[in-house]
UniProtKB/TrEMBL annotation:
Transmembrane segments: none annotated. Keywords: Hydrolase, Metal-binding, Zinc. This is MBL fold metallo-hydrolase. It comes from Lacihabitans soyangensis. SUPFAM superfamilies: Metallo-hydrolase/oxidoreductase (SSF56281). Residues 13-195 form the Metallo-beta-lactamase domain.
Length: 212
């Protein structure tokens, strides 16, 4: 059984996830930890639960999802995975942090690509990778069919959707991604998003005003 531990980090209230199972193998997804206290909180949870981090996975490379990426790579000596279409966004994070007056970001580079159709395995857990552009060109989501959940990044939120007013965004593309990659899943699948509380596919089909 795959367990999910979420953390809310940074002034952007970003959701960082640690996934792990009975084997104690784990992955960190979208580390938004910016302050030293937040980084320590993430590390202490992993150490106290004797977890072995196997990889750092990114849904996309917007700054609030990568604040702690260099820290995670260095601390746990793991590779970082990112869809190659988001590499230009990752390369621009340092500039955006300077423009917005956000201190403390440590530049980081991706090690391995993620693409549609990949299956990422750790312990007894399998995550299917789906490409869901719209909020970012290389945005991916991770689906665990065995445990019926999605780590969805900034695509589908509780009664909302990801922003599309950034460079390289497209609301039309985002809505298409949600309808073809998320809404084709059973209603009971839980969506763990990059911000806000979890939701379900069924609830969003019925109540999300952007997808009527």
């Amino acid at each position: 059984m795959t367990k999910i531990r979420s953390f809310v980090f940074s002034p952007f209230s970003e959701n960082t996830y640690v996934l792990y199972d009975e084997t104690k193998e784990a992955v960190v997804i979208d580390p938004g930890c910016l302050s030293q206290a937040e980084k320590l909180e993430l590390k202490e949870f992993i150490v106290e639960n004797n977890l072995k981090v196997k990889a750092l996975l990114l849904t996309h490379a917007h700054l609030d999802h990568v604040f702690g990426a260099a820290f995670v790579k260095r601390t746990f000596k793991v590779d970082m995975y990112l869809n190659e279409l988001d590499l230009p966004i990752l390369a621009d994070v340092e500039n955006r942090c300077k423009t917005w007056g956000i201190p403390g970001y440590e530049p980081v580079e991706s090690d391995k690509p993620l693409k549609e159709g990949d299956i990422f395995t750790f312990g007894n857990t399998e995550l299917a990778v789906v490409h869901v552009p719209g909020h970012a060109p290389g945005h991916v989501a991770f689906i665990c069919h065995k445990s019926q959940f999605i780590i969805g990044g900034d695509c589908l939120f509780h009664r909302s959707i990801g922003r599309t007013d950034f460079p390289f965004c497209s609301q039309e593309q985002l809505l298409h991604s949600i309808k073809t990659k998320f809404f084709t899943l059973p209603d009971e699948y839980t969506v763990y998003a990059g911000h806000m509380q979890p939701t379900t596919i069924g609830d969003e089909k019925k109540h999300n005003p952007f997808l009527k």
